[in-house]
Amino acid sequence: MDVYDRAKIGKKVGRGGDRNVFMYGSNEVIKISSVSWLTGDKLHNKLIHDYLVCHRYFKEYMVKTRDVSLEDGKTHIEIQPFVSGEFIEKKHMNNPAVKSQLAEIACILNQMKSDKYAPLDLVGHMGMIRPCLSNVFLDDDNKLRIIDTTLLEAKTLMPIGLLIEILLPIVKVRQKYLPKKFLR
Predict the structure, then answer these.
(1) In angstroms, what is the C-alpha Rg of the chain?
(2) For residue range 45-68, what is the model confidence (pLDDT) as tens digits?
(3) pTM for this one?
(4) Average pLDDT across the chain, whole number
(5) Which residue range(s) make up the domain with 164?
(6) Residue 172: CATH number of its domain
């Protein structure tokens, strides 16, 4: 099992739906779930499963993620390389290479749906507030990078998953709308 060094955890640099993101050393981030204690090992198992599914479909776009969760499985913790960049917005579609990458990601999402998987959450926390895909970064090399591989399903997290499932239709509508808007 991979472990992490608490002394390397630095300043907070972000927040997702369930994770706080901190610098980890000089070139990585550590993501610590703030809600995994509510679900026992269910969230941890879901996120590991989701990562493996996404790796099959989005391998070239994904940021490599190391699981450094505590052995009890009750606190999900991940380490990733730090990605310098911006959330994807409509303005980025002026670059044909970036637009082509987003179109490919949209096609892959359709394939996932055909294969009966829940879609990858591209919208993320900030994408529900402003028109962006906050789980997809445009890095300094104009490459799209998926920084969160959570699938839009919560049935595996019952009973708390019931609350999430109630909200998922709103997220799914937003996710369907934003990429289409960006790719027009």
Answers:
(1) 16
(2) 999 999 999 999 999 999 999 999
(3) 0.93
(4) 93
(5) 6-183
(6) 3.30.200.20
